[in-house]
Amino acid sequence: MSWQEIHEFFAPIRVVWFALIFIGIVVWAYWPRNRSKFDKIARIPLEDDLPDDQRSTPVRGS
Fold this sequence. Notes:
The protein contains two helices and no strands. Helix content is about 60%, strand content about 0%.
């Protein structure tokens, strides 16, 4: 059995395997139980690290 034959045998299996992994990740991402976790993570860039009175440099526009 040559490498070419091995490759031809495993190529369709590899495609199915990666498709199943992709579908699994999508299902996990949209699972209702994970929604609150992802909503919390999505707000991180919008939150300030420090209150305005503890900043060493003033914030523009205030």
